[in-house]
Amino acid sequence: MSEGIVWMGAHSTTGSSAGLPGMLGGISLTCARGVDVDEFLIALGADIDELAGPTPCKDLVVPARRRGDQSPHVNRAMYGTCGDWVYVLEDWGMATWATGYRTVESMRPAPDEEIVCVTMNSWSPPQRIIHAPGDGRAWQAEFGEDTGENSSLDAALHSAGAVFPSIGEVGEAAVVAYYEEHGPRLPVAVFTAVGNYCGLSIDQEAVQAGDLPAVLLPMV
Known about the structure:
Shape: globular
Largest sheet: 8 strands, antiparallel
Number of helices: 9
Radius of gyration: 17 Å
Number of strands: 8
Distance between the termini: 33 Å
Strand content: 15-25%
Order of helices and strands: HEHHEEEHEEEHHHHHE
Strand order of the largest sheet: 2-8-3-4-1-5-6-7
Oligomer: single chain
């Protein structure tokens, strides 16, 4: 196994992994517990027939779009389980759950279903952490902040150094200087915190090689 999920943060600014059989750079992570693997993937838009016969990411073909094609654009999503958690990895710039949980009925956080999402938000910055703790609500924070819910996840973010000083605490100039000095380590700190909170360990070599199963998810 690799070192938790710290490597995802370390490669968060690595260029596109389109040339790889799997994924490496700019991975968004969504993980959930209290829900079945297939159930969660179907809620994200996966085809039930794809789940009947899992396909390794390296063998999954993303259909080419033709001019005038009105069908939804799809992106590959690699998935697996670790402990109580189902995890979904995407490298197209966003996390599908993050784009749809407010408006798509199947993605709305349900009671007794906890979801933690780290979305790169390449198309709509900034990068965010979203936490649905299992009470039907969802809390979110930009990288460098906590969610404000005073949760165990927030405690993990503080412990990993993923919560930076705010303007209200130290003033704008000090915040700008702090981000200039420490900003490059922020993605590593965020993924460290989420990995520690969830107890996640995902093998970097298996993800990069595309050995984990994958499905196609429509863009929301």
